[in-house]
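Journal club side-thread
Mid-discussion, someone asked how the predicted structure for our own chain would compare to the paper's figures. Pasting it here so we can look after the session.
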Amino acid sequence: MRSLRSVLQSGQARTFALWLEAHVPFVREWHRVAYEEHFFRVSRWERLFYGVYPDFASAEKAIPKQFPVGYDNSAASSFLGHKLSIRSSDYPILFWLRCLFDENDKVFDFGGYLGISYWSYAPLIDFPASLSWTVYDVPAVVEKGKEMQLVRPSSALSYTTDFSEAAKADILLASGSLQFCVRDLADYLSELKTLPKHLLINETPMVSTEPFVTLQNMGPALAPYRVLQEQQFVNSLTNLQYHLVDKWQNDDFACVIPFEPDRTVRAFTGMYLRRD
């Protein structure tokens, strides 16, 4: 069975399937229906995507009513846990944090879930003794994070649903979170009286063509998932006096939407921007 699965998932099998779909329209439609049924039925993490929508509201409207949406619910608020293994995409962030921690000790972790980055990075980098690491997330996640702190306390780590606390931060970290937001990061930042000097963006799907929204099946919930237009994103932050210092590719992340090959994002994007 394992060898059969390997054959079916091979590049040759996918090439043949695409050839068959192109020459036999019925097969393509059958595959589409079968994938749609699987997408809306699966209940465990498979990193699945479905559909292309012009905006966040349209994608959200396409989610069947029986499904929890996004992370602000009990089903999705803790399924990832508080600690994940380090991936290659984390190392640019570790590099820049190591550099910035010489003079900066207040981190605002935008969409930081249960403190995944904090707990994952702690064994690999010397945190400042005065470190303040604030996780900003939706109410259900923040509530779960505070519960977990009773079991695994840390004086440096705190949780909030109030974005205005970012005004106290030296560094804003957004790792794998901007795609789940209906608003642009620049819109959030423009509401602050004082802006963080440093922005670390990571694991974010970006394209050079038109932006769009798809759906992601997270297992316990479905969520609209934004793919950003890179230059628009940078320009919006340039307007707030940030400039791009560094950019890198997250080759261990991709967004592949079946039946939408022109929308495939082969690698995600990371950036460091500084405000002088």
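Post-session note: The mean pLDDT is 90.
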